[in-house]
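Reopening this ticket.

The earlier resolution said the output was attached, but the attachment link was broken on my side. Pasting everything inline this time so it's all in one place.
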Amino acid sequence: MTIKPDIQGLLIYLTMAGYLLVFLTAVKFPKLAKAFFAGSFVLSLAGLIYRWTVVGHLPMQNMFEVFLFLGFCIWPIHILSRKILNRNDSVLMAVDAALGLIVLFPAGFVFNHHPQFLPPALQFWLFGPHVAAYMLAYIFLVKAAVFAAGGLILPSRGEQLAKTTADSGYRLVAAGFPLLTLGLFLGSVWGKYAWGDWWGWDPKELWSLVCWLVYAIYLHAHYAWPKRYSLQHVLNVIGLFCIIITLLWVNLSKIFSGLHNYA
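Inline output:
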């Protein structure tokens, strides 16, 4: 575990403290929690802007910057999710705050934050849209997996809970899947520009395709068997594991080596 004793670290830790306060106050003091949540977003934005000024390029290059960006996205996606799910309850706020803590932990305590030179292949206008599309998609899809896990863990609560969690999971996947598709498409276009081919069978590309296929199968299952809630939940959880492999294992494992190993 590595503590970051500088301005960047301070902004990350203050943001995490804000998310923790949201989690602790969401149920009993929801109005106060909303204020903490908005304040956490401001701090996360400050952290992202500070990183941008330090490195001199869009901070999405390595694992530290990716998780920093994910922490910044939590509050805006929380606001969108309230509209998508048509709910504004304290539990949703607490879950999203916990997610914020989880994604900022690697940025605050795991990954090195020393500035890195941006490789020539990344100096292209699709760099930001490609990475951002994936990161936004991942947050929506991880939130969907949270509902799916709830549906699998609490089957004794009845069919109504199963239906509610399945519906919430579907709405979030329906929001995240187009972004996932956009990220895959932009990556293919970028690959043609950077490496001369639309598809290079790189490990990152392969696992990104696996993720896309899992959620495509999930959407098919949702329409083909709308009342098979357990199947939908299982596919959502499988999708989560595929995201973890794509985002973390492919980048960090020595087993995989490819064109995307910039972290």
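Reporter confirms the inline version is readable. The longest helix spans residues 159-195. The chain has a mean pLDDT of 90.
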